[in-house]
Design brief:
Layout: H1 5-18, H2 30-40, H3 45-63, H4 65-70, H5 82-95, H6 99-119
Length: 134
C-alpha cells in the first residue's frame, strides 16, 4: 500500500526533530562490504555504523584521544556479538554506568564466579563437573 503524502510529511517532520543526518562517503565497493557485515551481525547498516561509532568513542574515552590515534586498534579491544553488545548497552544504561565501566565490572565479577566454580570442581562454561586430568 502506498504511503500518503500526509504520512510521509509526518515521518519527515519526526525525523527532522529527532535525528541528525550525516552523509558518509566510502570507496567504491566498501558499501557492499559494510552491508554484508551488518547483515551477518543481524543489524541494519545504520545500526552497525552507530555501533562502530559508539565503540570507537568508548575506546577513545578510555585511552585518551592522543593514545588512541597512535594505536587505533588498541590493546584489550574486544568485539561483542550484536546481541551481547545491545544487552551490555541496556544494562549499563540501567545501572547508570558508562559502557566500558559496566563491561569491566561485569567481566571482573564473572571471573570471580568462574574462579569459585573451578575451585569447587565445576566447569563454569557448562555447569558440569570438571574432568580430572590424567
Amino acid at each position: 500500500m502506498p504511503v500518503s503524502k500526509a504520512q510521509q510529511k509526518a515521518v519527515n517532520k519526526y525525523m527532522a526533530a529527532n535525528y541528525d543526518r550525516i552523509n558518509l562517503t566510502v570507496p567504491k565497493g566498501k558499501k557492499e562490504t559494510i552491508q554484508a557485515h551488518a547483515e551477518t551481525q543481524g543489524e541494519s547498516v545504520n545500526g552497525f555504523i552507530n555501533r562502530a561509532i559508539d565503540h570507537q568513542i568508548s575506546c577513545d574515552r578510555d585511552k585518551g584521544l592522543s593514545e588512541a590515534l597512535q594505536d587505533p586498534l588498541g590493546d584489550g579491544v574486544v568485539s561483542l556479538r550484536s546481541e551481547a553488545y545491545a544487552c551490555a548497552v541496556e544494562a549499563s544504561t540501567a545501572s547508570g554506568e558508562d559502557l566500558p565501566d559496566f563491561v569491566s565490572r561485569a567481566v571482573e565479577t564473572q571471573a570471580k564466579r568462574d574462579k569459585t566454580s573451578l575451585a569447587m570442581g565445576i566447569n563454569p562454561a557448562t555447569g558440569g563437573k570438571l574432568e580430572k586430568e590424567a
